[in-house]
Amino acid sequence: MYFITLFHVDSLPFQNYICLMPETSLNIKGILGKDGLLAQSLPSFEFRSSQLQMALLLEEALQKKIPAIVEAGTGTGKTFGYLVPVILSGKKAVVSTGTKNLQEQIYHKDLPLLRKATSLNINAMIMKGRKNYLCLYRYHQFFSQPSLLKTGLEKTRKKIEKWLKKTKFADRAELSWLADDDVLWDALSSASDQCLGSECMFLDECFLNRLRSKAAKSKIIIVNHHLFFADMKVKKGGFGEIIPRFQVAVFDEAHTIEEIATGYFGEILSTNQLMELVNELEKETTDLQDIDKGKLKRHLNGIKIGSENLRGFCNDIGERGRLDHAALSEISKGPGREIRKGLKYLQEKAGLGELDNIALQVLVARAGELNLLLDNILCKRDSNWLNWYEKRKKSLVLHASPLDISGPMNETLYQKLQAVVFTSATLSTNKTFDYIRSRLGLPGDTLEGLYPSHFNFETQTLMYLPKDLPNPNASEFASKVAMRIAEILRRTDGRALVLFTSYHNLNLVFQILNGNVPYTILRQGDAPRSTLLDEFRRDIHSVLLATASFWQGVDVPGESLSCLIIDKLPFDSPGEPLVAARIDAIRDKGGNPFMEYQVPSAIISLKQGLGRLIRNNSDRGVLSVLDVRVMTSRYGRFFLESLPEIPVSHDLSDITRFF
Fold first, then answer.
1. How far apart are CA 595 and CA 636, in angstroms?
2. Where are the beta strands (DSSP E) in 570-650?
């Protein structure tokens, strides 16, 4: 039996490649084995038994239609480990990643390599969030403003116009000349709450429609976790879909799933959303004659005042915090009432929805959605939910978040799909998947695979654990740590990434080190992340001080990152509302939140940190954890037992000898 499918490669992204071959001519061993097609055709391919075992395990999961969870250490080659069985299964699959970088790598590098090596029939598509694509309606609306012609944007418009004539999907990533933080893109991109839908005059030319149409015909769709769970939320609400229906989901970088899914299974409303609605309505109604502008202005001002009062409500309390029943009631009767009154007027009495103006009809619909969202967020739910707030630069964000996502995961994922795969380099704690299985509510028949990295950590790595530093809770901890970091850096010639669990310690150490060690000291926040990483790679002896966002997704192979220093064990702060509420929920059920939740979560974070150090077979490096609790506490051994077998030293001079 023969079949035909299409594959699109990066060099010729919109050509169709048709390949005929027998369905039965290839199997996993024939592709990933020692003498397989990849070994024969790719000079850089290195056979890894763990990669082959992973692929065979996932083949079993796909055949039996059950979930699987796989930890594949750095260097295992897990991308091919799941792509090959998924492709051979012939099932329609979504591959979801934690970062855009991995999305791009899979689509532009890994899949073309597989096709070249195997002549596999691969029909793949990459999808990103709407904000990554240009909206033709917003583009024409923006550049139709005469005042813009005087601002120097005419040259930019011509560049975009030229690009639009040749682009297939109008993906922002194609505009290498447009800076990451250029506000122009915000005015041009496709936002869901501004979409005119079937009434749009550019419907036939719409890039997003073109993208979805192509995705509907593709066997593999590559997305990121945020888009995946946004799609789940849309489908659950019965309002359509973003990603076409599929049979199998593979989550790469799955250690981030719980936090991302929690946001989408809950509700989120910000004062920015309310202010954006007001601003757009003011702009759209400037020239209207057939409405009561006085009443409209009063109600729009009511929404503005309510939003400002909502921000003011949290002025005298912390940056984040829980909202109890009394606080919710006070918000609902105060700023919430003002906001709700304005939104209801827009939705029911302003008469804007009856006008022959599609943009206004969309804005009125959005007012109704925000009104419903406000009600949902301000209602007190059962004990599995947390109402909380967080302050951002110019906005206050209200959340209603589930504390346990196992129910929604089962209802919307495990019961709906033929197979679900979770994989990452860091999913196990103390050699088991008990923690992650409980957090994600994985069924009892879930297959498990634990495949350590094939790197030789015994010769490539040294772990330095001091015994003579103060406990992290001591007042002198940061200053003592700064002096110890300076001593380590002199032995490593800089070349270090120093990860902190708080900005307070980061800034204090920076003040002590800057100018007192003969190396460039880079600090998170002083420049964009990409700029800092580029400088860190370029200046081999530089030192980068960073916090949580650099614990994962940093890829600096080679000499520039020869030392990883961690100030203390990365426990989630119990001051974080969600963390504190989860701790309370476990305790209320008679569990031990420290051992069941806090320690396993910190172990996974520590393993993520270690993953920054050794990226290939030629890397060598020192891992230093400056937290004496690793040696002195009853739980410290769980951290050490969860890491690869690394030689441990308590003597600084061993660092000198190692290098």
1. 11
2. 621-625, 648-649
Answer yes or no: are the C-beta atoms of 33 and 52 closer than 8 Å.
yes
**In the prediction, which pLDDT does 147 show?**
64
Last residue of a domain, one of 167, 194, 210: 210
* Whole-number Cα distances in Å, 551 to 269, 497, 529: 28, 10, 12
Q: Count H helices, E strands: the chain?
A: 29, 22
The answer to whether residue 365 is domain-embedded is: yes
In the sheet that holds 385-392, the strands lie side by side as 267-270, 395-402, 385-392, 320-322
Mean pLDDT split into 10-residue runs, the chain, 659 residues: 33 34 67 93 89 97 97 92 96 94 91 90 90 90 71 82 93 86 85 78 90 92 95 78 92 95 95 93 83 89 94 83 93 94 91 83 91 93 93 92 95 95 95 96 96 89 95 93 96 94 92 92 90 92 89 77 94 92 95 96 90 83 95 94 93 94
Token duo for residue 607 = 């393993």
Is there a single domain that holds both residue 166 and residue 195?
Answer: yes
User: Contact 496/545 with Cβ under 8 angstroms?
Assistant: no
* CATH number of the domain encompassing residue 337: 1.10.275
Amino acid residing at 125: M
Spatial separation of the C-alpha atoms in residues 378 and 203, rounded to whole Å: 37
Q: How far apart are CA 479 and CA 157, in angstroms?
A: 53
Three-class SS of 497-529: EEECCCHHHHHHHHHHHCCCCCCCEEECCCCCH
Distance in angstroms (rounded) separating the CA atoms of residues 194 and 426: 39
> By C-alpha distance, which of 498, 459, 465, 460 is closest to 482?
498
Task: Quote the CA–CA distance of 619 and 455 in Å, as a whole number.
Answer: 9
Going by C-alpha positions, the residue among 130, 89, 81, 65 that lies closest to residue 415 is: 65
In the three-class reduction of DSSP (H, G, I as helix; E, B as strand; rest coil), residue 140 is classed as helix
Question: What is the spatial distance between Cα 264 and Cα 253, in angstroms, rounded to a whole number?
Answer: 18
Sequence-ordered list of residues with C-beta below 8 angstroms from that of 277, at least 6 positions apart, any chain: 303, 363, 366, 367, 370
Helix/strand/coil (H/E/C) assignment for every residue in 68-127? EEEEECCCCCHHHHHHHHHHHHCCCEEEEECCHHHHHHHHHHHHHHHHHHHCCCCCEEEC
Question: Within 10 Å of residue 373's Cβ, how many Cβ atoms?
Answer: 17
- Do 107 and 176 fall within a single domain? no
CB 277 within 8 Å of CB 285: no
Per the CB < 8 A criterion, the answer to whether 291 and 351 are in contact is yes
Tell whether 296 is covered by a domain.
yes
Determine how β-strand 248-251 pairs with β-strand 267-270: unpaired
Beta-carbon contacts of residue 528 (< 8 Å; ≥ 6 apart): 180, 181
Chain centre to alpha carbon of residue 338: 35
Number of domains in the chain: 4
Separation of alpha carbons 551 and 259, rounded Å: 15
* CA 427/CA 69 separation, integer angstroms: 8
pLDDT at residue 653 in the model: 95
Q: Domain range holding 135?
A: 130-210
What is the distance between the alpha carbons of residues 233 and 242, in angstroms, rounded to a whole number? 10
